[in-house]
Amino acid sequence: MKKILTLVLIALLAIASLGVASAEEARGEGKTIGICLTSQALARTVLDSIYLTEYLEEMGYDVEIVYSEQDAAVQATQFETFVSMGVDGIIISPSDSTALSNAVEVAYDNEIPVMVYDALIMNSPYIEYYATDDLYAVGATQGGYIVDALGLEEGKGPFNLEIFSGSMTDNNATYFFEGAMDQLQPYIDSGMLVVKSGQVDRTSTATDKWSATNAQTRADAILSTYYSDGTHLDACLTQNDDLAAGVIAACKSAGYGTEDNPLPLTTGQDCNVSAILSIINGEQSSTVFKNIKELAYAASVGIDAVIHDEEMPWDPEMVGSYNNNAVDVTTYQVKPLLLTAENWYELIVESGFYDAEDLGMTEEELAAYAPAA
Ligand code: BGC
Protein backbone atom coordinates (compact mmCIF):
# COMPACT_ATOMS: atom_id res chain seq x y z
CA MET A 1 0.00 0.00 0.00
CA LYS A 2 2.84 2.39 0.88
CA LYS A 3 4.25 1.80 -2.62
CA ILE A 4 0.92 2.60 -4.26
CA LEU A 5 0.49 5.78 -2.24
CA THR A 6 4.01 6.86 -3.05
CA LEU A 7 3.32 6.40 -6.76
CA VAL A 8 0.17 8.50 -6.59
CA LEU A 9 1.85 11.17 -4.45
CA ILE A 10 4.85 11.44 -6.76
CA ALA A 11 2.51 11.98 -9.69
CA LEU A 12 0.51 14.59 -7.82
CA LEU A 13 3.64 16.42 -6.62
CA ALA A 14 4.99 16.56 -10.15
CA ILE A 15 1.73 18.14 -11.21
CA ALA A 16 1.69 20.59 -8.30
CA SER A 17 5.08 21.93 -9.33
CA LEU A 18 3.69 22.99 -12.70
CA GLY A 19 2.16 26.13 -11.22
CA VAL A 20 5.51 27.50 -10.08
CA ALA A 21 7.34 27.11 -13.37
CA SER A 22 4.46 28.27 -15.52
CA ALA A 23 3.63 31.38 -13.49
CA GLU A 24 7.06 32.76 -14.36
CA GLU A 25 6.84 31.94 -18.01
CA ALA A 26 3.16 32.20 -19.07
CA ARG A 27 4.22 30.22 -22.08
CA GLY A 28 0.78 29.98 -23.62
CA GLU A 29 -0.02 33.70 -23.54
CA GLY A 30 -2.05 34.67 -26.62
CA LYS A 31 -2.32 31.06 -27.81
CA THR A 32 -5.36 28.79 -28.03
CA ILE A 33 -5.62 25.03 -27.61
CA GLY A 34 -8.67 23.28 -29.06
CA ILE A 35 -9.75 20.17 -27.18
CA CYS A 36 -11.98 17.53 -28.78
CA LEU A 37 -13.56 15.18 -26.23
CA THR A 38 -16.05 12.35 -26.60
CA SER A 39 -19.04 12.81 -24.32
CA GLN A 40 -20.07 15.05 -21.50
CA ALA A 41 -22.25 12.23 -20.23
CA LEU A 42 -19.18 10.22 -19.18
CA ALA A 43 -17.96 10.98 -15.67
CA ARG A 44 -14.32 10.58 -16.65
CA THR A 45 -14.65 13.06 -19.51
CA VAL A 46 -15.84 15.67 -17.04
CA LEU A 47 -12.58 15.18 -15.11
CA ASP A 48 -10.54 15.25 -18.34
CA SER A 49 -12.05 18.64 -19.20
CA ILE A 50 -11.50 20.07 -15.71
CA TYR A 51 -7.83 19.10 -15.45
CA LEU A 52 -6.84 19.83 -19.04
CA THR A 53 -8.36 23.30 -18.68
CA GLU A 54 -6.66 23.87 -15.33
CA TYR A 55 -3.16 22.94 -16.47
CA LEU A 56 -3.33 24.69 -19.84
CA GLU A 57 -4.77 27.87 -18.36
CA GLU A 58 -2.03 27.87 -15.72
CA MET A 59 0.43 28.01 -18.60
CA GLY A 60 -1.46 30.98 -20.04
CA TYR A 61 -3.31 29.22 -22.88
CA ASP A 62 -6.89 29.93 -23.87
CA VAL A 63 -8.81 26.67 -24.00
CA GLU A 64 -11.80 25.74 -26.15
CA ILE A 65 -13.49 22.39 -25.54
CA VAL A 66 -15.99 20.63 -27.80
CA TYR A 67 -17.77 17.29 -27.30
CA SER A 68 -18.80 14.99 -30.13
CA GLU A 69 -21.23 12.95 -28.01
CA GLN A 70 -19.66 9.85 -29.59
CA ASP A 71 -20.47 10.87 -33.15
CA ALA A 72 -17.38 10.36 -35.29
CA ALA A 73 -18.58 12.57 -38.16
CA VAL A 74 -19.41 15.41 -35.76
CA GLN A 75 -15.97 15.07 -34.19
CA ALA A 76 -14.19 15.22 -37.55
CA THR A 77 -16.03 18.46 -38.32
CA GLN A 78 -15.21 19.90 -34.90
CA PHE A 79 -11.55 19.04 -35.40
CA GLU A 80 -11.48 20.64 -38.85
CA THR A 81 -13.15 23.75 -37.45
CA PHE A 82 -10.29 24.10 -34.96
CA VAL A 83 -7.84 23.76 -37.86
CA SER A 84 -9.58 26.44 -39.90
CA MET A 85 -9.71 28.74 -36.85
CA GLY A 86 -5.94 28.41 -36.77
CA VAL A 87 -5.65 27.22 -33.15
CA ASP A 88 -2.10 26.71 -31.89
CA GLY A 89 -2.56 23.09 -30.89
CA ILE A 90 -5.24 20.38 -30.62
CA ILE A 91 -5.74 17.72 -27.97
CA ILE A 92 -8.11 15.01 -29.16
CA SER A 93 -9.71 11.97 -27.59
CA PRO A 94 -11.25 10.16 -30.57
CA SER A 95 -14.86 8.96 -30.59
CA ASP A 96 -13.91 6.42 -33.23
CA SER A 97 -10.26 5.38 -33.42
CA THR A 98 -10.42 4.77 -37.18
CA ALA A 99 -12.39 7.80 -38.34
CA LEU A 100 -9.94 10.68 -38.06
CA SER A 101 -6.95 9.97 -40.25
CA ASN A 102 -8.03 12.55 -42.87
CA ALA A 103 -8.66 15.22 -40.25
CA VAL A 104 -5.20 14.84 -38.68
CA GLU A 105 -3.58 15.04 -42.09
CA VAL A 106 -5.20 18.45 -42.58
CA ALA A 107 -3.79 19.57 -39.19
CA TYR A 108 -0.37 18.31 -40.22
CA ASP A 109 -0.55 20.23 -43.53
CA ASN A 110 -1.40 23.35 -41.53
CA GLU A 111 1.44 22.73 -39.04
CA ILE A 112 -0.91 22.50 -36.09
CA PRO A 113 0.49 20.21 -33.37
CA VAL A 114 -1.82 17.40 -32.25
CA MET A 115 -1.69 15.46 -28.98
CA VAL A 116 -3.83 12.34 -29.05
CA TYR A 117 -5.43 11.67 -25.69
CA ASP A 118 -6.76 8.47 -24.07
CA ALA A 119 -7.59 6.44 -27.22
CA LEU A 120 -5.28 6.34 -30.25
CA ILE A 121 -6.10 7.56 -33.76
CA MET A 122 -5.36 4.65 -36.06
CA ASN A 123 -3.99 4.38 -39.60
CA SER A 124 -2.36 7.80 -39.74
CA PRO A 125 1.36 8.46 -40.17
CA TYR A 126 0.78 12.04 -38.96
CA ILE A 127 0.37 11.19 -35.28
CA GLU A 128 3.49 11.82 -33.24
CA TYR A 129 2.45 12.06 -29.58
CA TYR A 130 -0.12 10.28 -27.46
CA ALA A 131 -0.95 10.43 -23.74
CA THR A 132 -2.82 7.47 -22.26
CA ASP A 133 -2.60 4.74 -19.63
CA ASP A 134 -0.77 1.44 -19.76
CA LEU A 135 -3.77 -0.07 -21.52
CA TYR A 136 -2.76 -3.72 -21.42
CA ALA A 137 -2.05 -3.33 -17.68
CA VAL A 138 -5.56 -1.95 -17.11
CA GLY A 139 -7.04 -5.18 -18.50
CA ALA A 140 -4.48 -7.36 -16.74
CA THR A 141 -5.37 -5.68 -13.44
CA GLN A 142 -9.06 -6.44 -14.00
CA GLY A 143 -8.47 -10.06 -15.00
CA GLY A 144 -5.95 -10.52 -12.20
CA TYR A 145 -8.48 -9.23 -9.69
CA ILE A 146 -11.00 -11.91 -10.71
CA VAL A 147 -8.34 -14.63 -10.54
CA ASP A 148 -7.28 -13.52 -7.04
CA ALA A 149 -10.73 -12.82 -5.63
CA LEU A 150 -12.07 -16.22 -6.71
CA GLY A 151 -8.95 -18.04 -5.47
CA LEU A 152 -8.41 -19.69 -8.84
CA GLU A 153 -4.68 -20.04 -8.30
CA GLU A 154 -5.38 -21.99 -5.13
CA GLY A 155 -7.45 -24.41 -7.17
CA LYS A 156 -10.92 -23.13 -6.21
CA GLY A 157 -13.73 -23.45 -8.75
CA PRO A 158 -15.38 -23.98 -11.10
CA PHE A 159 -17.05 -20.56 -11.21
CA ASN A 160 -19.40 -18.96 -13.72
CA LEU A 161 -18.11 -15.88 -15.52
CA GLU A 162 -19.58 -13.49 -18.09
CA ILE A 163 -17.64 -10.91 -20.07
CA PHE A 164 -18.56 -7.31 -20.97
CA SER A 165 -15.94 -5.56 -23.06
CA GLY A 166 -15.88 -2.04 -24.50
CA SER A 167 -16.88 -0.43 -27.75
CA MET A 168 -15.57 -1.94 -31.00
CA THR A 169 -14.70 1.56 -32.21
CA ASP A 170 -12.32 2.16 -29.28
CA ASN A 171 -8.79 0.94 -29.89
CA ASN A 172 -8.16 0.98 -26.11
CA ALA A 173 -10.78 -1.70 -25.60
CA THR A 174 -8.70 -4.15 -27.64
CA TYR A 175 -5.79 -3.77 -25.22
CA PHE A 176 -8.05 -3.96 -22.16
CA PHE A 177 -9.50 -7.18 -23.55
CA GLU A 178 -6.13 -8.75 -24.31
CA GLY A 179 -4.77 -7.86 -20.87
CA ALA A 180 -7.77 -9.33 -19.08
CA MET A 181 -8.11 -12.44 -21.22
CA ASP A 182 -4.44 -13.32 -20.80
CA GLN A 183 -5.30 -13.70 -17.10
CA LEU A 184 -8.67 -15.44 -17.53
CA GLN A 185 -8.28 -17.64 -20.61
CA PRO A 186 -6.12 -20.32 -18.91
CA TYR A 187 -8.91 -20.89 -16.39
CA ILE A 188 -11.58 -20.91 -19.11
CA ASP A 189 -9.48 -23.53 -20.93
CA SER A 190 -9.12 -25.64 -17.78
CA GLY A 191 -12.85 -25.44 -17.04
CA MET A 192 -12.37 -23.58 -13.76
CA LEU A 193 -14.13 -20.57 -15.30
CA VAL A 194 -17.28 -21.40 -17.23
CA VAL A 195 -18.85 -18.84 -19.56
CA LYS A 196 -22.35 -20.25 -19.89
CA SER A 197 -23.40 -17.83 -22.64
CA GLY A 198 -20.45 -19.01 -24.74
CA GLN A 199 -19.77 -15.34 -25.54
CA VAL A 200 -16.04 -15.03 -25.02
CA ASP A 201 -14.52 -13.23 -27.97
CA ARG A 202 -14.08 -9.51 -28.41
CA THR A 203 -16.97 -9.09 -30.87
CA SER A 204 -19.62 -11.06 -29.03
CA THR A 205 -18.78 -9.37 -25.70
CA ALA A 206 -18.52 -5.78 -27.03
CA THR A 207 -20.73 -3.00 -25.69
CA ASP A 208 -21.71 -0.35 -28.21
CA LYS A 209 -20.58 3.14 -27.10
CA TRP A 210 -19.50 1.70 -23.72
CA SER A 211 -23.10 2.36 -22.66
CA ALA A 212 -24.36 1.20 -19.27
CA THR A 213 -27.81 0.66 -20.77
CA ASN A 214 -26.45 -1.55 -23.54
CA ALA A 215 -24.50 -3.60 -20.99
CA GLN A 216 -27.60 -3.92 -18.84
CA THR A 217 -29.69 -5.09 -21.80
CA ARG A 218 -27.14 -7.74 -22.72
CA ALA A 219 -26.80 -8.85 -19.09
CA ASP A 220 -30.62 -9.12 -18.79
CA ALA A 221 -30.66 -11.41 -21.82
CA ILE A 222 -27.76 -13.54 -20.57
CA LEU A 223 -29.28 -13.90 -17.10
CA SER A 224 -32.70 -14.90 -18.37
CA THR A 225 -31.34 -17.29 -20.99
CA TYR A 226 -28.52 -19.03 -19.12
CA TYR A 227 -29.06 -18.46 -15.40
CA SER A 228 -32.82 -18.57 -14.84
CA ASP A 229 -32.54 -22.17 -13.58
CA GLY A 230 -30.86 -20.84 -10.43
CA THR A 231 -27.27 -21.26 -11.61
CA HIS A 232 -25.26 -18.56 -9.86
CA LEU A 233 -23.27 -16.04 -11.87
CA ASP A 234 -20.08 -15.63 -9.83
CA ALA A 235 -18.05 -13.00 -11.65
CA CYS A 236 -18.27 -10.52 -14.49
CA LEU A 237 -15.38 -8.96 -16.33
CA THR A 238 -16.95 -5.51 -16.74
CA GLN A 239 -14.35 -3.35 -18.44
CA ASN A 240 -15.29 0.05 -17.07
CA ASP A 241 -17.42 1.53 -14.31
CA ASP A 242 -20.35 2.23 -16.62
CA LEU A 243 -20.50 -1.40 -17.77
CA ALA A 244 -20.24 -2.55 -14.14
CA ALA A 245 -23.17 -0.30 -13.20
CA GLY A 246 -25.30 -1.70 -16.05
CA VAL A 247 -24.51 -5.31 -15.16
CA ILE A 248 -25.13 -4.75 -11.45
CA ALA A 249 -28.52 -3.20 -12.26
CA ALA A 250 -29.43 -6.25 -14.38
CA CYS A 251 -28.29 -8.64 -11.65
CA LYS A 252 -30.30 -6.80 -9.02
CA SER A 253 -33.45 -7.00 -11.11
CA ALA A 254 -32.81 -10.74 -11.51
CA GLY A 255 -32.78 -11.10 -7.71
CA TYR A 256 -29.05 -10.85 -6.97
CA GLY A 257 -27.78 -8.77 -4.07
CA THR A 258 -29.00 -10.74 -1.05
CA GLU A 259 -27.07 -12.82 1.45
CA ASP A 260 -28.20 -16.06 -0.21
CA ASN A 261 -27.76 -14.74 -3.71
CA PRO A 262 -24.79 -12.33 -3.65
CA LEU A 263 -23.95 -10.11 -6.58
CA PRO A 264 -21.24 -11.43 -8.88
CA LEU A 265 -17.76 -9.96 -8.56
CA THR A 266 -17.34 -7.04 -10.93
CA THR A 267 -14.42 -5.01 -12.25
CA GLY A 268 -14.19 -1.50 -13.68
CA GLN A 269 -11.98 1.42 -14.50
CA ASP A 270 -12.13 5.22 -14.14
CA CYS A 271 -13.02 5.56 -10.43
CA ASN A 272 -16.31 7.30 -11.24
CA VAL A 273 -17.70 8.73 -8.00
CA SER A 274 -20.76 6.48 -8.43
CA ALA A 275 -18.45 3.45 -8.69
CA ILE A 276 -16.54 4.41 -5.54
CA LEU A 277 -19.84 4.76 -3.67
CA SER A 278 -20.98 1.40 -5.07
CA ILE A 279 -17.72 -0.20 -3.87
CA ILE A 280 -18.20 1.34 -0.41
CA ASN A 281 -21.74 -0.10 -0.38
CA GLY A 282 -20.47 -3.55 -1.30
CA GLU A 283 -22.02 -3.71 -4.78
CA GLN A 284 -19.29 -3.12 -7.38
CA SER A 285 -16.26 -5.09 -6.19
CA SER A 286 -13.33 -3.32 -7.82
CA THR A 287 -12.25 -0.67 -10.26
CA VAL A 288 -8.99 0.54 -11.73
CA PHE A 289 -7.62 3.94 -10.75
CA LYS A 290 -6.24 5.72 -13.80
CA ASN A 291 -4.88 9.02 -12.57
CA ILE A 292 -6.58 11.56 -14.84
CA LYS A 293 -4.67 14.44 -13.21
CA GLU A 294 -1.40 12.83 -14.25
CA LEU A 295 -2.73 12.10 -17.75
CA ALA A 296 -4.06 15.63 -18.29
CA TYR A 297 -0.79 17.05 -16.99
CA ALA A 298 1.26 14.90 -19.37
CA ALA A 299 -0.91 15.94 -22.33
CA SER A 300 -0.75 19.62 -21.36
CA VAL A 301 3.02 19.89 -20.91
CA GLY A 302 3.41 17.64 -23.96
CA ILE A 303 1.46 19.85 -26.36
CA ASP A 304 3.14 22.92 -24.85
CA ALA A 305 6.56 21.42 -25.65
CA VAL A 306 5.56 20.61 -29.23
CA ILE A 307 4.16 24.11 -29.74
CA HIS A 308 7.46 25.56 -28.53
CA ASP A 309 9.49 23.12 -30.57
CA GLU A 310 11.13 21.75 -27.46
CA GLU A 311 12.02 18.26 -26.37
CA MET A 312 9.21 16.26 -24.76
CA PRO A 313 9.50 16.83 -20.98
CA TRP A 314 8.02 13.42 -20.12
CA ASP A 315 9.84 11.19 -17.63
CA PRO A 316 11.46 8.58 -19.92
CA GLU A 317 10.41 5.84 -17.51
CA MET A 318 6.77 6.64 -18.27
CA VAL A 319 7.19 6.66 -22.03
CA GLY A 320 6.58 3.78 -24.42
CA SER A 321 4.97 3.53 -27.81
CA TYR A 322 1.80 2.23 -29.44
CA ASN A 323 1.62 1.30 -33.09
CA ASN A 324 -1.37 2.74 -34.97
CA ASN A 325 -0.96 0.54 -38.08
CA ALA A 326 1.07 3.29 -39.73
CA VAL A 327 3.73 4.41 -37.23
CA ASP A 328 4.94 3.85 -33.67
CA VAL A 329 3.56 6.73 -31.64
CA THR A 330 5.56 8.03 -28.67
CA THR A 331 3.27 7.57 -25.69
CA TYR A 332 3.09 8.69 -22.06
CA GLN A 333 1.58 5.76 -20.13
CA VAL A 334 0.00 6.30 -16.70
CA LYS A 335 0.34 3.22 -14.49
CA PRO A 336 -3.06 1.84 -13.46
CA LEU A 337 -3.77 0.70 -9.89
CA LEU A 338 -6.39 -1.74 -8.57
CA LEU A 339 -8.95 -0.12 -6.25
CA THR A 340 -11.17 -2.17 -3.91
CA ALA A 341 -13.08 -1.71 -0.65
CA GLU A 342 -9.78 -2.32 1.15
CA ASN A 343 -7.72 0.49 -0.36
CA TRP A 344 -10.10 3.09 -1.82
CA TYR A 345 -9.57 5.53 1.03
CA GLU A 346 -5.78 5.51 0.77
CA LEU A 347 -5.79 5.55 -2.99
CA ILE A 348 -8.19 8.34 -3.76
CA VAL A 349 -8.79 10.26 -0.53
CA GLU A 350 -5.37 10.31 1.13
CA SER A 351 -3.77 11.05 -2.24
CA GLY A 352 -6.04 14.09 -2.64
CA PHE A 353 -7.75 12.83 -5.80
CA TYR A 354 -11.30 13.13 -4.41
CA ASP A 355 -12.41 15.04 -1.32
CA ALA A 356 -15.57 14.79 0.77
CA GLU A 357 -17.44 17.19 -1.50
CA ASP A 358 -16.51 15.19 -4.63
CA LEU A 359 -17.89 12.08 -2.95
CA GLY A 360 -21.03 13.88 -1.76
CA MET A 361 -20.17 13.39 1.91
CA THR A 362 -19.54 15.66 4.87
CA GLU A 363 -15.98 15.77 6.24
CA GLU A 364 -17.19 13.74 9.25
CA GLU A 365 -18.84 11.08 7.10
CA LEU A 366 -15.69 10.67 5.05
CA ALA A 367 -13.39 10.69 8.09
CA ALA A 368 -15.36 7.75 9.49
CA TYR A 369 -13.93 5.62 6.67
CA ALA A 370 -10.30 6.47 7.46
CA PRO A 371 -8.42 3.27 8.29
CA ALA A 372 -7.23 3.04 11.90
CA ALA A 373 -3.67 4.39 12.15
C1 BGC B 1 -11.19 4.96 -21.76
C2 BGC B 1 -11.91 4.54 -20.51
C3 BGC B 1 -13.39 4.82 -20.63
C4 BGC B 1 -13.94 4.30 -21.95
C5 BGC B 1 -15.36 4.77 -22.17
C6 BGC B 1 -11.82 4.31 -22.95
O1 BGC B 1 -11.16 4.66 -24.12
O2 BGC B 1 -9.82 4.62 -21.67
O3 BGC B 1 -11.37 5.24 -19.42
O4 BGC B 1 -14.08 4.19 -19.58
O5 BGC B 1 -13.16 4.73 -23.02
O6 BGC B 1 -15.42 6.14 -22.22
Task: Tell me about this structure.
It is a single chain. By secondary structure, this protein is α/β, with parallel strands linked by helices. The chain is 45% helix and 16% strand. It has 14 helices and 13 strands. The strands form three sheets. It has a seven-stranded mixed beta sheet, with helices on both faces. The chain is globular and about 65 Å long. Residues 42, 44, 118-119, 166, 170, 172, 210, 240, 269-270 line the site of beta-D-glucopyranose (BGC). Keywords: Signal. It is found in: Cell envelope. This is Sugar-binding protein.
- Counted by DSSP, the helix tally is 14
Please trace the helix and strand order, writing H or E for each element.
HHEHEHEHEEHEHEHHEHEHEHEEEHH
β-strand percent reads: 15-25%
| Shape category | globular
Return the structural class. Answer: alpha/beta
C-alpha end-to-end distance: 13 Å
- Computed over alpha carbons, the radius of gyration is 21 Å
Q: Within the largest sheet, what's the order of strands? A: 2-1-3-4-5-12-11
Mean residue pLDDT: 94
- Count of extended strands: 13
Largest pleated sheet? 7 strands, mixed
Question: What is the gist of this entry?
Answer:
This protein has helices at residues 2-16, 18-25, 43-58, 72-85, 101-109, 135-150, 171-190, 202-205, 212-226, 241-253, 273-280, 292-307, 344-350, 363-367, and strands at residues 32-37, 62-67, 89-92, 114-117, 129-133, 159-164, 193-194, 235-238, 265-266, 286-289, 319-323, 328-334, 337-340. The protein has 373 residues and is of the alpha/beta class. Strand 8 (235-238), helix 10 (241-253) and strand 9 (265-266) form a beta-alpha-beta unit.
